[in-house]
Write a structure and sequence with these properties.
The structure is a single chain. The chain is an alpha/beta fold. It has 21 helices and 13 strands. The chain has helices at residues 12-24, 29-35, 39-42, 61-73, 76-84, 118-137, 161-169, 188-195, 215-232, 248-254, 280-286, 288-307, 314-329, 346-358, 390-395, 417-434, 438-447, 452-462, 480-501, 509-526, 535-548, and strands spanning 44-47, 50-53, 111-112, 115-116, 150-154, 179-183, 203-208, 241-245, 261-263, 333-339, 376-379, 402-407, 470-475. The strands form three sheets. It has a six-stranded mixed beta sheet, sandwiched between helices. Strands 6-5-7-8-9 form a five-stranded parallel beta sheet, sandwiched between helices. A hairpin with a 2-residue loop joins strand 3 (111-112) and strand 4 (115-116). Bound molecules: glucose-6-phosphate. Glucose-6-phosphate binds at residues 156-159, 209-211, 214, 217, 269-271, 356, 508, 511.
Length: 550
């Protein structure tokens, strides 16, 4: 395979960034703040209903000038416009990438192969409105005439992570009669845990699969159907099973009436699909009007990304800062720290969005890249992380950039809690930036009356290097609209980085491999003969056969 200069290293801006980094690597953010009292104003931006403070980064105005020059040189604006226009930028699958059309106003015209997709998008939205209204009002009833109380979404990856994360995030807006469940894992413990809680009379299953062939989803859907049929019989299936898919034939073969199928299209990637009918559990949980607000919030961020100059373009800035650390400082992971319990699934969602999109090692033309691409994305909610892994981020050997996310107002009435939460969030960002010098530790300990020899022994342990970068993303409160904007912000950040690295952010051949790999081993575990694999796999299969009595 030919090694290529990536989109990034082929630019003049890259050379300039390399020499700029030679200086910048020694800067201390403490000094940058001391020298420039306007740093917060200079390095913060508003867009799409969100606010980003990026002043606690190892940057100055020259850094941002060079990074924006890089974005222009790799053609970010041109590729962004190509995406919005419905060009087939997913080149390995020959597909357009149009999650932005799913949240565009009905009167927009967005064409794929000369066909305006908007009438069809809005036809399905209307279908979702009708269905979600009926489930919520109690008009859609189970076989015994009772209203639905439990909704079980069966899907995996992009057909699970989005709706689950959003339903969790919008928990305070959920219809009080409804409990939402998400089953994804082929591990039967997942489905078993849900089936043991729900009543077939009042449970609705949504089988969500773009292809309707994914092994995990199909197995879970079949087991759920068997569970239902063994209690009630086939005749009542239509009241309890609906499908979301692009594959009408497979839906019909499974036994779900296509009347109860909500379609979407091949130009919606799995991890970008929560805006499509894959968002049906969201519409059912919070109501269609709220779902519309969620789409509108994302559209606001789309408009910001599409029209704001790169210098004040929030997703572009977030993406370029990530490139600055990944490709010049050599950092290898990014931590996501939402200070909001209802965003407890957000880091897992971003893990798929960014790592599946940009976890690539070849260029769009198929040449091996000469730069590092997507870092590891991980994290959990604050303040919990502070009592666990933040230690490593403060005093460990790796520099890990952090994205803090917070809502200024809570969605609850426990008034005393929120200032404490925000104080912790801001304090952590401040501590990452400032650290604590040996002198500061010494004088603090001396004031507490600690003996001098103990101070000497403890200073290295109690010193914090600081100079650790973070972004702070703020919203007024977590609502369907701000959540939509937040997700879209990260989608476009991911897009920006994909363009800089020159990868196709919209395929996922690594996932496709997983979809076929297990088949022959499954036959070896359950079939008459164990088959021949490598010695390790043979040994593991033998243990599984013995345990399962194959
Ligand atoms: C997402 C990926 C992947 C996909 C799942 C489920 O971008 O392609 O996570 O969403 O493998 O696929 P189906 O929806 O086809 O079942």
């Amino acid at each position: 395979m030919a090694m290529t200069r990536s989109a990034l290293t082929a630019t003049a801006a890259h050379e300039a960034l390399l020499s700029h980094h030679a200086e910048a690597k020694d800067w201390q953010m403490r000094d940058l703040f001391a020298r420039d009292p306007d740093r917060f104003t200079r390095f913060s931006v508003e867009g799409g209903g969100l606010f980003l403070d990026y002043s606690k980064n190892r940057i100055n105005e020259s850094t941002m000038r060079l990074l924006t020059a890089l974005a222009r040189e790799v053609g970010l604006e041109k590729r962004r416009d190509a995406m919005f226009a419905g060009e087939k930028i997913n080149s390995t699958e020959h597909r357009a990438v149009l999650h932005t059309a799913l949240r565009a106003p009905a009167m927009a015209t967005i064409e794929v192969d000369g066909q305006n997709v908007m009438p069809e998008v809005h036809r399905v939205l209307e279908q979702m409105r009708g269905f979600s209204d009926r489930v919520r009002s109690g008009q859609w009833q189970g076989y015994s005439g009772k209203a639905i109380t439990d909704v079980v979404n069966i899907g995996i990856g992009g057909s699970d992570l989005g709706p689950e994360m959003v339903c969790r995030a919008l928990r305070p807006f959920t219809h009080p009669r409804l409990t939402m469940h998400f089953v994804s894992n082929v591990d039967g413990h997942d489905l078993d845990a849900v089936l043991s809680k729900v009543n077939p009379e009042t449970t609705l299953f949504i089988v969500a699969s773009k292809t309707f062939t994914t092994i995990e989803t199909m197995m879970n859907a079949r087991s759920a159907r068997d569970w239902f049929v063994s209690r009630r019989g086939e005749q009542d299936l239509p009241k309890h099973f609906v499908a979301v898919s692009t594959n009408a034939k497979a839906v019909q073969d499974f036994g779900i009436d296509t009347q109860n199928m909500f379609p979407f299209w091949d130009w919606v990637g799995g991890r970008y699909s929560v805006w499509s009918a894959i968002g049906l559990p969201v519409a059912v949980a919070v109501g269609f009007d709220r779902f519309t607000e969620f789409l509108a919030g994302a559209h606001g961020m789309d408009e910001h990304f599409r029209t704001a100059p790169i210098e004040s373009n929030m997703p572009a800035i977030l993406g370029l800062l990530g490139v600055w650390y990944r490709n010049y400082f050599g950092t290898s992971s990014v931590s996501i720290a939402p200070y909001h319990q209802d965003l407890s699934a957000f880091a897992a969602y971003l893990q798929q969005l960014e790592m599946e999109s940009n976890g690539k090692r070849v260029s769009r033309d198929g040449d091996l890249l000469d730069v590092a691409t997507c870092p590891v994305i991980w994290g959990d909610v604050g303040t919990n992380g502070q009592h666990a892994y933040f230690q490593l981020m403060h005093q460990g050997t790796d520099v890990i950039p952090v994205d803090f996310i917070a809502a200024l107002k809570p969605n609850h009435g426990l008034a005393a809690h929120h200032p404490v939460l925000l104080a912790n969030c801001f304090a952590q960002a401040k501590a990452f930036m400032r650290g604590k010098t040996a002198d500061e530790v010494r004088s603090e300990m001396a004031q507490q009356g600690v003996p001098a020899d103990e101070i000497d022994a403890l200073v290295p342990h109690r010193t914090f290097p600081g100079n650790r970068p973070s972004n702070m993303i703020l919203m007024e409160s977590l609502t369907p609209a701000t959540l939509g904007a937040l997700i879209a912000l990260y989608e476009h950040k991911t897009f920006t980085q994909g363009v800089v690295w020159g990868v196709n952010s919209f395929d996922q051949w690594g996932v496709e491999l997983g979809k076929v790999l297990a088949k022959s081993i499954e036959a070896s575990i359950t079939g008459p003969q164990p088959g021949v694999h490598d010695p390790s796999t043979n040994g593991l299969i033998a243990r599984a056969r013995a345990a399962l009595g194959s």
